[in-house]
Amino acid sequence: MTFSPRNRIEVMHGVNLDQLGRRASEHYGDMTLTELETRISTEAGDLGLLTRFFHTNQEGDFVEHLHRLEGLADGIVLNPGAWTHYSYAIRDALEITGLPAVEVHLSDVQHREPWRRVSVIEDLCLATVSGEGPEGYRLAFERIVPELGR
Ligand code: DQA
């Protein structure tokens, strides 16, 4: 019998998140995406999780990455950026994965422009964490761990 730890989390960042560090600091803080990923990977490690990171500014690449996750990830933590609010293509691809997922937003999307209050992936996710800054990713990991059936 092979032992499967089921601890592989795909952390996916969407459009414009590679611009962290240049974006409005009152919403997104000062960290770059690289700094954020370093922090995330340490925190995930503390919870016994193994992270792999993906970023793209191309919607189709985000979709195809989701298609390719079968057998490679046990859960997904995703911040699709603005795609969150309107991309049914990403929604459908997330559904196809069948994996437990948590949606994260650095900023408090419920208290910004009205269009940011809509998430087309929300009901596919175990939880949405928003407005907690980088800390939100740790909260997402804590939420996903019980779903991994380890
Ligand atoms: C974001 C919120 C989105 O509304 C926005 O378009 C982003 C980042 C966040 O992390 O707060 O690009 O997902």
Pick out its properties.
single chain, 150 residues, alpha/beta, five-stranded parallel β-sheet, 5 helices, 31% helix, binds 1,3,4-trihydroxy-5-OXO-cyclohexanecarboxylic acid
Task: Tell me about this structure.
There is one protein chain. The protein has five helices and five strands. By secondary structure, the protein is an alpha/beta fold. Strands 2-1-3-4-5 form a five-stranded parallel beta sheet, sandwiched between helices. The protein is globular, with a radius of gyration of 14 Å. The mean pLDDT is 96. 1,3,4-trihydroxy-5-OXO-cyclohexanecarboxylic acid is lined by residues 16, 79, 81-82, 84, 105-107, 109, 116.
List the helices and strands and how they pair.
Elements: E1 8-15, H1 25-28, H2 33-46, E2 50-55, H3 59-67, E3 75-81, H4 88-97, E4 101-105, E5 127-130, H5 135-144
Parallel strand pairs: 1-2, 1-3, 3-4, 4-5
Main sheet properties:
5 strands, parallel
The level of helicity is 25-40%
Q: Which range does the strand content fall in?
A: 15-25%
C-alpha geometry: globular
Instruction: Specify Rg, calculated over alpha carbons.
Output: 14 Å
Give the number of DSSP strands. 5
Short structural description:
Helix content is 31%, strand content 20%. With 150 residues, it is an alpha/beta fold. The relative contact order is 0.20.
